Amino acid sequence: MNFTIILLLSLTLLAPATAQTPVSIEKEPRHHLEFQNGYVRLFYVRIAPGDTTLFHVHENDNVGVRLTNAKLSDVVPGGTPKKVSVNKGAVGFGHYPGPLTHSVSNVGSTPFHNMVVEILPSKAVPFAAPLLADVAGHTLELENERVRILRLALAPGQSTGQHLHDRRFLGVVVTEGKIAVERPATETETVDFNPGDYRWHERGMGHSIRNVGSTTFEAVEIELKGD
After folding, report:
1. Domain containing 56 — which CATH number?
2. Regarding predicted confidence, which is higher, 123 or 118?
3. What is the value of pTM for the model shown?
C-alpha cells in the first residue's frame, strides 16, 4: 500500500505542470495601463528581481522604451528561454503580424522598468513631415511604416529652439531633468520630469525646450505615421 502511494506521488511530481492560460496584456499584473486614446495605449511594466510575468498576449505593434538596465529571460509557450540584457534608454520596435504570447522573467539583481507603447490600428498615410533630427538636440533613432522615433538629448543650458511638430507624437522621459517649455503667446512652463513621465501631443504643436537643470536630459519622441 505504501509503495503504491509513493509511486503515485512520484508520477504526479514528474508529470508536466498544466500550462497557464495566456492573458491579454491589460490583465497581466505587471503591465499597468497609464494612458490610452484612439491612437496608442501606454503600459508601464515593472518586474522586480526574481519575478516572472504571466504568459500574456501582444496583438498590436509596439515601441518599448527601457528605463533601467536589467537581465531578462524571455520564453514562448513550449519554447526554450532566451536570455536578454537591456540597457537604460534603449528603444525597440515589435511588429506582430500575428499575436505573440510570451512570459518574461527578471533574472538579474536590478528592477526592470519598461514603457510599452502600443500602436493601435490606423490608416497609413504618406509621411512628408520635416525631419526633426535637424532640430537641435534631436537624432533619428528608428523609422518604419508605423512610427518615426527621435531621441532628444539636451545638455544643461541647451535649447532646441522653436520648432513645429507636424505629426501626433508621444514623448517618454528617460532621465530626470528640469525643463522650460516655451510656446508662442503663452507663459514659459517649467517642469521637473522623472523617468517614465510622458506627454501626448497633437499635430501642429510648436514649442521650444530648454534644459534648465544641472544634468543632461533625455527623452524619446514617438511620432505616428497613421492618419
Report:
1. 2.60.120.10
2. 118
3. 0.87
